[in-house]
Amino acid sequence: LENFRGIYMKTKKKGLFIILSSPSGAGKTTLAKKLTKNNKNIELSISYTTRKKRPLEKNNKDYNFVSEEEFIKLKKKKYFIEWAKVFNNYYGTSFVNVKKINNKGKDVLFDIDWQGAKQIRKKFSEYVVDFFIMPPSILELRKRLLRRGQDKINIVNKRMKMAFTEMNHYKEYKYILINDNFMKTVNKIHMIIKSERNQKLNMIQIKKNFKN
Ligand code: 5GP
């Protein structure tokens, strides 16, 4: 029993890669913020983007806002674990940032689209826990995009179209949650993460130890 406890303590430090994807406006960003605030063991990976900063956003906090030229330079240097072009803008996840979080023994939270999720899954499948967050309805999605008020109306319409493209990929995710009640969704995600921490990594580590 002592040995098993030792193994458990070791693996607890490894950290999961938690992916949250959803159409823009399903409440994902608020969810991501709440999850990291409530749980000191989870840290958000701050992406790089060439998108224009929205009025309420802060550089280096919501995104690292960079020019297209800078992004392409970084991409060429293989700076990103994954990157994608979404809605005419580039988005990418820094390898260094993820490594930093992972080295602290924390879980990394990725707020990325289906293209990014696919790349992370391919490279780190055993660490990945992936969620697709669905808005309660199409009408609610539109309302939320309008309420956000940070985007112009033609952008909202384009984002609605993008939402359908994104939602076509929900089946690629292990967990699909309908975000009709914010706190319930937060609690569900916490519960699943807790369970996943116990399942995957520990079992992998125990298996390795038995082989030796
Ligand atoms: P927004 O412009 O509304 O902040 O984000 C648009 C979409 O890009 C969202 O689906 C968001 O999850 C996604 N996204 C944000 N950062 C990244 C990233 O680093 N990589 C990928 N692949 N998608 C991202």
Description:
By secondary structure, the chain is α/β, with parallel strands linked by helices. Helices cover 50% and strands 19% of the residues. It is built from eight helices and nine strands. Strands 2-7-1-8-9 form a five-stranded parallel β-sheet, with helices on both faces. A four-stranded mixed β-sheet has the order 4-3-6-5. The protein starts with a helix and ends with a helix. The mean pLDDT is 87. The structure holds guanosine-5'-monophosphate. The site of guanosine-5'-monophosphate (5GP) has 14 residues, from β5, β6 and α5. Guanosine-5'-monophosphate is lined by residues 24, 47, 51, 82, 84, 86, 91-93, 111-113, 115-116.
Share of residues in helices? 40-55%
Main beta sheet: 5 strands, parallel
Strand order of the largest sheet: 2-7-1-8-9
Calculate the mean pLDDT score and round it: 87
Strand content: 15-25%
**What's the Cα radius of gyration?**
18 Å
Q: What's the total number of strands? A: 9
Distance between the termini: 18 Å
User: What would you call the structural class?
Assistant: alpha/beta
Number of helices: 8
Overall geometry: globular
Summarize the topology:
Elements: H1 2-12, E1 17-21, H2 28-38, E2 42-44, E3 48-49, E4 64-65, H3 68-76, E5 80-86, E6 89-94, H4 95-103, E7 107-111, H5 114-124, E8 128-134, H6 138-148, H7 153-167, E9 175-178, H8 182-211
Parallel strand pairs: 1-7, 1-8, 2-7, 3-4, 8-9
Antiparallel strand pairs: 3-6, 5-6
Helix pairs in contact: 1-8, 6-7
Bound molecules: guanosine-5'-monophosphate.
Guanosine-5'-monophosphate (5GP) binds next to strand 5, strand 6 and helix 5.
